[in-house]
Automatic annotation (TrEMBL):
Homodimer. This is Malate dehydrogenase. GO terms for biological process: malate metabolic process; tricarboxylic acid cycle. NAD(+) binds at G8, A9, A10, G11, G12, I13, G14, D34, N95, I118, S119, N120, M233. The lineage of its organism: Eukaryota, Fungi, Dikarya, Basidiomycota, Agaricomycotina. Substrate binds at R82, R88, N120, R154.
Amino acid sequence: MVKAVVLGAAGGIGQPLSLLLKSNPAVTELGLYDIVNAPGVAVDLSHIATPAKVQGYLPPDDGLKKVLTGADVVVIPAGIPRKPGMTRDDLFKINAGIVRDLATGIATTAPKAFVLVISNPVNSTVPIVAEVFKKHGVFDPKRIFGVTTLDVVRASTFVSEVLGDLSLTTSVTVPVVGGHSGVTIVPLLSQSSHPLPSGLQQSTVDDLINRIQFGGDEVVKAKDGAGSATLSMAYAGAEFAGKVIRALKGEKGIVAPTYVNLAADKVGGEALKKELGKDLEYFSAPVELGPNGVEKINGLGKITPAETVLVKAALPDLATNIEKGVTFVQVPKL
Ligand SMILES: NC(=O)C1=CN([C@@H]2O[C@H](COP(=O)(O)OP(=O)(O)OC[C@H]3O[C@@H](n4cnc5c(N)ncnc54)[C@H](O)[C@@H]3O)[C@@H](O)[C@H]2O)C=CC1
Ligand SMILES: O=C([O-])CC(=O)C(=O)O
């Protein structure tokens, strides 16, 4: 029995993500929550002939508490998306408070649930969730994840395009590490399951890296004011949630890049900090998942000098983003 909950379920990501979770036969209960329209989305999905029992809630009458009761996995795509010209950090002003309040609900009602944070800026919203959990004395770093899967999905697609064979997309895997914004997104192309041809021009490789790092901007620009990635994000969110659920049910050996608190695996986390040469509290790395969440944080592995430069370039922004999230909860503005 697995109860999955989506907070922000009526939104651009929330609706298709809820559809994909309803399509996952391992989900037996699906709770949907939003400040608008969640009951409507729930009734619509409830007609689909898959096992999950779907229920939708709004804030009145303790809706948040009701949806979170008994939750095993909580996915959070609540919050505003970017418009052209905005950075993900520009979303902090509004989304930080939304995520803090939802995290408070989870900490008090479902403190053991796995929390999968999609709301941007992920580099800061994950620390916000963690700090809220610490305040409530229920913090377990193994159970809080920043969803960076879309970067991994984009890397598979764009590498396949460069290889000239889109049929490879489902089998190409490229680890993407760091964080989830601009230069903090670091694809490790040297570890691609399908290596790039050795004669490839450097400018082609540089363009590929840039496209993976700024893939979000491509969608924001194309949607021209109507938001950011929703459908590809729903796909990526469902993929990551599916892996977390499989691990929760006991399947072994599932590894996925995700943005976690490095205290989740003391040995692996400390080794990674050594590799980075910096005492960062959060980083996206390939993580082995288990029934208790993070089982093992893997290091960067063998990377090229050029990739070392990219990793180093990610560190200052990451440190600033993390500090911003932590401070928001620890030192609230009056
Ligand atoms: N991690 C990632 O890779 C990605 C993250 N995102 C982020 O996901 C977030 C959501 O994006 P969209 O779905 O496109 O936005 P959207 O505006 O379409 O949907 C957001 C939903 O959140 C709801 N909401 C707002 N405040 C809430 C609250 N306090 N409680 C519950 N629900 C609340 C809204 O009513 C709305 O239905 C944005 O912050 C966006 O930047 C988007 C794409 C990729
Ligand atoms: O670009 C955005 O604002 C949404 C996002 O995180 C992505 O598509 O990777």
